[in-house]
What we know:
Blueprint: H1 2-11, H2 18-22, H3 44-71, H4 75-94
Amino acid sequence: MRYREILESYYAGQKQDLLRQIRPPANGEYAYNYSDAERPRLTLRMLQKLRIQKDKERAELADHLAFLPIMYADPECDDKKRRRKGARKSALITR
């Protein structure tokens, strides 16, 4: 029945937006475009969430930067260091 009403109003010469007739915006639902003059206002709650998110991103970046030298370390250098340490310990024990 709604479809018939839409078609009748459209063809009767009434210029109405078909999309709004099919699906009207719900309460509290806004569609912002780049060309809109007004932007949604940031509340303190929104700013707090953004700050917490930024703090988490900074902590993750710090952890990642600390892990990079471990991840890309040359394994041969580590083996040589272990061999040297082992050789020094054995030299001290034999003396």
